[in-house]
Amino acid sequence: MSTLSALAYVQAMESMQAVPLTEFRHRRLSARPLVIIPLAMAGEAGAPLAAMVGSAKRNGTLLVVAQPRNRDQRFAFAADLGQVVMDYIDSFRQDRRGEGERSRYTDAPQILVPNPGGIKALADLGRMCRFRSTSGPYAVPDAVPKFGMWLTFLVERAEQAGTSMLLPVTGMLAEHWATGQSTIEDQNLASLMAWIAPPPGLNVEQAMAEAENPDVCPPAGPSTSPEFDNRDLAPAIRRFDAARTLDDPHALAATERELRELIAGQIQPTWRMVWEAISLLRSVPEAPRTAKRFERDCKAFTDYSDYRDSGGLPQRKRDAAIGAARRLGWLEHALAEFESDMAFDDRSVLADRRSAGEAFAGMVVEAEPSRTVTTAKDRRVPRPLVTVRTDDPVRLAADTRLISPSMPAGHKAMIVSVVRDGDTTRVTVEVTGGMGRGRIPKQGTVPEPGQRVAYLPDPGWRPAPQFPASDATPWTHSAADEGDTDSAVLDDAAAEEWGNED
Amino acid sequence: MRTDTGTTPDPAAAAAAATEAVLADMASGRHRAVVVDSPPGAGKSTLVARAAHELTAGGERPIIVAQTNNQVDDLVVRLARDHPGIVVGRLSATGYSPPPVLDALTNTTVGRTLADLAGCRIVVATAAKWATVRDATFGWAILDEAYQMRSDMLLQIVERFDRGLFVGDPGQLDPFTIVGTERWIGLPHDPTQNGVSVMLAHNQNIPVHRLPVSWRLPSSAAPTISRAFYPFTHFSAGTDDDARALEFRTAGFGRTDLDETLAQAFTTGWALHELRRRHVPRTDTETLQTAADLAGRLLHRGAVATCERHQGGRPLEPGDIAIGVAHRDQADLVRAALARTGNPGAPGVTVDTANRLQGREFEVVIVVHPLSGRRDATAFHLEAGRLCVLASRHRQACIVVAREGIADLLDSHPSTDPVHLSVRAKFPDGWEANQIMLDKLAQHRVAA
Fold first, then answer.
1. Of the four listed, A24, A98, A436, B29, which is most buried by Cβ atoms within 10 Å?
2. Alpha helices in A310-438 (DSSP H)
3. C-beta separation of A91 from A105 below 8 A
4. pLDDT tens digits for range A374-383
5. B172 CB contacts (<8 Å, ≥6 apart)?
6. What is the per-residue burial (b if ≥16 Cβ within 10 Å, else e) of B282-311?
7. A356 touches chain B (CB under 8 A)
8. Residue A82 and residue A129 in contact, taking contact as beta carbons nearer than 8 Å
9. CB contact residues (below 8 A), chain A span 60-89, against chain B
10. Cβ B177–A332 below 8 Å, yes or no?
């Protein structure tokens, strides 16, 4: 944590109200997001209990698995939820522009969950669904495997920094507001909202006390409150099972209704709160570069959508060596680019980076605008030198490539030297790009003495790392006698009781 | 440890035997890879140069992969000097300017592509540069500092060679990623792991050698470092107790607190300069200024170092001293504090983080303890590799500057890292290594 963000957290604590950390919201917020609040059953990994889903506050659909241990009911639930989600996703596959390779959908879906645990729950659900067969023994409805594959696509995409197709609301809020609580506490939607926007008539302390009381503010999932589990849920499920065993349709309907009401009571406060958070987030202006990142989301959405249409296989259980290495490269690049984008757009984020010495801003004290050098290809090109005096604790080394939010687009520079001068630092940079094609830089493309400029490192374009072909994993990363690991495991190794076989 | 020195009366012979065993395994042709674990200062570069020479003598045209440009430069200089008859090529990126010492050598060539280096018997480059080379295959590659190379990097260069000699120090800092993802935990080919572990996980019967003697660490340090950071592969010091010594050139006057610490370090090889117990941010002025003052005082009083290389003694120069810290902002502040000491030699003292001190060697090292003044012990600060790097750079003495209370901090923060299926327990455990180091330092404590 840098000095500046630490200061914001301390301020929030002292004034007992959330303090904005950024000028902008760096995540795109769709005009029509789909909110999913997944609940899971305690004690059984990956057993969904319920979900509330919908793309408007007033038309949320509550789906409940009355007996989460029963596989038939689980997949019936997955089919219902899958239908809602697939209808939503399909509604974005209408408007497609561009020709051939560049053809893509103009909009992309956005699913919002209350917290990072929600993403984990969707990942589990995706893994549970995507390999299921729609024929043969234990067949599941057609929507299930497709839903599983889409969920997995969204979850995997969400790992990449700066994407917006699946996001936790708490993450978006905590990125913009500093509160007086810890990072872990910030993952609790209710207490985060208590800091940012306490309910009318309550101050932050009172709102927080309520947020921590599971009877007033039930947890935002995926796990439910243990008290609720023991006191209400377990007996209700038992009554439902009893009714099922007796094969009494009236009792069955009554116990099912009772369960739905119980769960509705747990899930609806979170549902309302998520929509409140969304309208809060709408009031924060969106950062300019969000649009550029959204285009990449649209491309990824189009590509996966075409892959699905062509009958593509479900995602693998585990990454293979080359896929994993390639993926790590993307993830690192996306993170560096997202961090740089944020600092480029947002003065507060830039100030944060400056206080850590990873960027600097100051006054131009010297400039040599007419300097030229001869390149290796024997061309004379302008390479003006500019010296900036800054009070920032610069920690960048010579030869670092820079970009500048205070200069016209395309401006690029490289650090020549960093010299301490008493309490200030003199940074000399060579302007290397964004000056037009001529031998003399265009007007306004080279900082002039007296001008204030800011610079930050250029995450830059990197050639994609070249790995061996995916079917030729080299000896260091594959065991010679291994063959296909997955086929070495018997098909029925994961066999389990399917449900109440009756 | 005592038994170690007992069974290896002649460290030179033990080291030579280990080297021969490595070369024999390489020559046998039975293995695709040979791994050499090397504790700090155990003659890794010598082994690399020797192995490269043997390979060229056998008609091979080996390549050498190092991790940073500095490491490549050092290796090229080393190879060219040791083997004047061999032309060494240095493959580099555009914009690279060779250091003067490399320019002065006649049997080196610098080139941007392999075609430029057609006449070279050995080609050296960074892993990142080798990753850009296509369509060339060599019989042997020597991978230096292989434990610092990530598995995804190894995957990019592995097609360039048939067999590999992996040389490195397993006790130093592991490679890392800033991406927080759990999806590869437990996979044998986890791309965030180091290349050696991944290669060993996929290949059975790969011979793993270790170099048994540290030529850098003095006999006062080798047993402790060995026990704390290399619990299963002990090594001993290559020099005996009286081979190395430090002496002041002037008598002390004023600043008795600093002098007491320096005297402790000079006589025993270790010193813990302990400041009052306080919770402080890592940028705590008192701690960092004390580290700088110790270096300043050392320069001011002047010291003569005697060792096997300089048996008549040699005055310590600023370049012989390093100050090691955990974070970059601490390094900046120590540099500023050094300037405040007013000593003309102060700017020549090396100040850097553990990551950047890896692989380097000094006479005296002053360490700001990563846990000093902290309220909690995070995985970053407990990492064994970090402390290992800091505490194993010195040939004469190591001085640790810390706030009192690290022992209590360790006691209240036992390792709580989650245990994952299929992930081998990592040794040494950072928490335990820290305890062993603290135990040792407690015997050399000087309260400020």
1. A24
2. 321-345, 347-355
3. no
4. 887 788 889 9
5. B147, B148, B358, B385, B388, B389
6. bebeebbbbbbbbbbbbbbbebebbbeeee
7. yes
8. yes
9. none
10. yes
On chain A, the residues whose CB falls within 8 A of the CB of B183 are 159, 319, 324
The CA distance from B284 to B298, in Å, is: 22
- Determine contact, residues A66/A257, Cβ cutoff 8 Å: no
The total of other beta-carbon atoms located within 10 Å of residue B175's CB is 16
On whether any CB of chain A is under 8 Å from the CB of B187, the answer is yes
Residue of A nearest to B189 (CA): A321
- Measured distance CA(B188)–CA(A479) in Å, rounded: 10
Shortest Cα–Cα distance, B34 to chain A (Å): 12
Contact flag B178-A477 (C-beta cutoff 8 Å): no
Amino acid occupying residue B333? L
A286 to chain B, minimum CA–CA distance in Å? 25
Nearest by CB to residue A325, choosing from B32, B155, B188, is B155
Cα-based angle A82, A83, A87 (whole degrees, multiple of 5): 115
Cβ <8 Å between B198 and A320: no
Across the interface, whether the CB atoms of B155 and A479 are under 8 A apart is answered no
Tokens of B71: 């490491």
pLDDT in tens, A226-254: 999 999 999 999 999 999 999 889 999 99
pLDDT of residue A493: 56
Q: Which two tokens stand for residue A493?
A: 């190794």
What is the rounded distance in angstroms from the CA atom of residue A98 to the CA atom of residue A161?
A: 26
Nearest CA in chain A to B166: A476
Q: Find, in chain A, the residue whose alpha carbon is nearest to that of B332.
A: A395
Instruction: Select from B134, B184, B332 the Cβ nearest to the Cβ of A393.
Output: B332
Single-letter amino acid, residue A118: G
Closest-CA distance, B196 to chain A, in angstroms, reads 9
* E strand segments, A93-134: 96-97, 104-105, 111-113
Determine the longest span between alpha carbons in chain B, in angstroms. 67
pLDDT tens-place values along chain B, 448 residues long = 344 444 446 888 999 999 999 999 999 989 999 999 999 999 998 999 999 999 999 999 999 999 988 889 999 999 999 999 899 999 998 878 888 888 888 899 999 999 989 889 999 999 999 999 988 899 999 999 999 999 999 999 999 999 999 999 998 888 888 887 788 998 999 999 999 999 999 998 999 999 999 999 999 999 999 999 998 888 999 998 888 999 988 887 777 889 999 999 999 999 999 999 999 988 899 999 999 999 999 999 999 999 988 998 899 999 999 999 999 889 989 998 999 988 899 999 999 999 889 888 999 999 999 999 998 888 888 888 999 999 999 999 999 999 999 999 998 888 777 888 888 877 788 888 999 999 999 999 998 7
What one-character-per-residue DSSP string does A221-235 give? SSBPPHHHIIIIIHH
CB-count burial class (<10 Å; 0-12, 13-18, 19+) for B430: buried
Out of A321, A335, A376, closest to residue B189 by CB: A321
d(CA B136, CA B159): 8
Cβ distance of B155 and A476 shorter than 8 Å: yes
- Separation CA B428–CA B172 (nearest Å): 11
Residue B184 touches partner A, C-beta closer than 8 Å:
yes
- Confidence at A117, pLDDT banded by 50, 70, 90: very high
What token pair was written down for A226? 């243990």
Residue B152: which of A329, A335, A482 has the nearest Cβ? A329
What is the bridge-based pairing of β-strands A424-433 and A48-54?
Answer: unpaired
Q: Select from A159, A357, A477 the Cβ nearest to the Cβ of B155.
A: A477
Q: B 154-173 residues with CB below 8 A of A?
A: 154-156, 158-159, 164
Beta bridge pairs of residue B36: B167, B209
Closest Cα in chain B, distance from residue A8 (Å): 17
